[in-house]
Design a protein that fits this description.
Layout lengths: L1 H17 L25 H21 L4 H11 L4 H5 L3 H13 L16 E3 L2 E3 L3 E3 L10 H6 L4 E7 L12 E4 L4 E4 L8 H21 L19 E6 L8 H12 L5 E5 L14 H16 L11 E5 L5 H13 L4 E4 L8 H4 L9 E4 L3 H14 L6 E4 L5 H10 L3 E4 L1 H6 L3 H15 L5 H4 L2 H5 L1
Helix pairs in contact: 1-2, 2-3, 7-8, 8-9, 10-12, 12-13, 13-15
Length: 457
């Protein structure tokens, strides 16, 4: 009876959140970053989406009254697959805005099931319940941190955030290559700016602290609790520079001063192909000068007992061996806390070259990027001698893909494009498959598998 009541209550809460047809007559507020078309009740696509959502929630509420909470949670994640076709009918940027808004308002499933114990790990003194993260670019302005972490990600990275608000490149700027499981974008760091993001993260942080203070429950195993400044998960903040800025270092330093207090780790993004001249900062001298200035800005700030946030650099996949050697040398010499490998590519692999959309200018992400980014990951693991934590990003769409990144040298991994296509159901799927890969090959922990391919060679 208790299980039924719990399940029914969860279903009722979810139903009440959305039963009022949230997308009916819904208009997105304008911002410095995007102007999104109005989604009205008269829109056929809006009607289909609203009807499908309400139908799913009615069915879910009824189903929840007969099952336990964990079973209902699994059903709810699986049910999101039914909504994906409706997103596919929309313009990519409109679909993106809908997804972010849904997560920001809690109109997404909440993962209630514990992660497999084999996936837990500690990096930079932070405890991750699993190594699966959401890459920067999805929640550019930190609107939906709580909702995204609640989906079951081990960590979420927001941004890239620029000091001054900017619109980014003209629309259209996001293009689907659905059959190839890929996306081309040339957004160009569309951002509300660090002030708006700082206010948002500050409000979220204060709300969490208040909830923790007022809570009457205490945990006997607080030391084993996963999470960071964002609560149940780890929060990364990705910093960018403004398109018209002549002093890149000053832009990144400003980001550190304003946003680092809310971040579990910081990322210097010098690898987007959509900001003119940005990738030139990956050169040995330029990168060394930049990192030293950003590290100094971080180190001069006062930090509490949690310590200063780790500093990472995100690099491109379109680099020569010499470029990689230079980056590795800088990372080792300056004791960089980590590297994210990789950003999107300006190349067009054979698997997408015949698609007419492939001629669009911008960075390619998704499945066609997997081999290229994984090869860069392998090279960088060797060049850094496994001494620097690497985050593998690029083309992951399954647990097996994530496992290959880990074996190649990634301590953590990130997804984006596959999440855009597969929705929330992809997250528990990847975690389950990854745990199965570890068990299959005799690894008791994800940590044991990091760089395994190099130990066998």
């Amino acid at each position: 009876m208790a299980a039924r009541s719990s399940g029914k209550l969860l279903g009722d809460v979810l139903f009440k959140r959305m039963a009022s047809s949230p997308f009916q007559g819904f208009r997105y507020s304008s911002s410095a970053t995007e102007s999104v078309p109005k989604i009205t009740h008269s829109s056929k696509k809006g009607k289909l989406f609203t009807g499908a959502t309400i139908g799913l929630l009615i069915a879910g509420g009824a189903y929840a009254s007969t099952v336990d909470e964990a079973t209902f949670c699994g059903w709810l994640f699986s049910a999101t697959k039914l909504v994906n076709p409706f997103f596919a009918l929309l313009d990519p940027e409109v679909a993106h805005r809908l997804a972010v808004s849904a997560a920001a308002r809690g109109w997404v499933p909440r993962e209630k099931r514990p992660d497999p114990s084999s996936l837990g790990l500690e990096v930079w003194g932070r405890k991750f319940s699993n190594p699966i993260g959401l890459a920067a670019g999805f929640d550019k302005n930190a609107e939906a941190v709580d909702g995204l972490l609640a989906l079951g990600f081990g960590f979420v990275e927001v941004g890239s955030v620029t000091p001054v608000p900017q619109d980014g490149n003209p629309k259209p700027r996001i293009f689907r290559l659905r059959e190839e499981g890929a996306i081309i974008n040339r957004c160009g760091f569309n951002s509300e700016g660090i002030v708006a993001v700082a206010k948002r993260l500050g409000a979220q942080h204060g709300k969490r602290k208040l909830a923790e203070t007022s809570s009457t429950t205490t945990s006997s195993n607080a030391e084993d609790k996963h999470g960071g400044k964002a609560g149940p998960g780890i929060l990364g903040v990705n910093l960018g520079k403004n398109k018209t800025s002549e002093d890149a270092a000053a832009d990144y330093v400003q980001g550190v001063h304003t946003l680092s207090q809310y971040a579990d780790y910081l990322v210097i993004n010098v690898s987007s192909p959509n900001t003119p001249g940005l990738r030139m900062l990956q050169g040995r001298k330029q990168l060394k000068d930049l990192v030293k200035k950003v590290q100094a800005a971080r180190d001069e700030m006062q930090w509490g007992e949690e310590g200063l946030p780790p500093l990472l650099v995100k690099i491109a996949p379109d680099l020569s061996r010499e470029d990689l050697e230079d980056i590795a040398a800088v990372a080792l010499a300056l004791r960089l806390d980590g590297l994210i490998i990789t950003n999107t590519t300006i190349s067009r692999p054979d698997s997408v070259s015949s698609n007419p959309v492939a001629s669009e200018v911008g960075g390619l992400s998704g499945k066609p990027l997997f081999d290229l980014s994984t090869n860069i990951l392998k090279e960088m693991y060797i060049l850094t001698r496994g001494n620097i934590p690497l985050i593998g990003c690029g083309g992951i769409s399954s647990g097996e893909d994530a496992y290959k990144k880990v074996r190649a040298g990634a301590t953590l991994v990130q997804i984006y494009t596959a999440f855009a296509y597969g929705g929330p159901a992809l997250i528990p799927q990847i975690k389950t498959e990854l745990a199965e890969c570890l068990e299959r090959d005799g690894f008791k922990s994800i940590v044991d598998a990091v760089g395994a391919d190099h130990r066998l060679s």
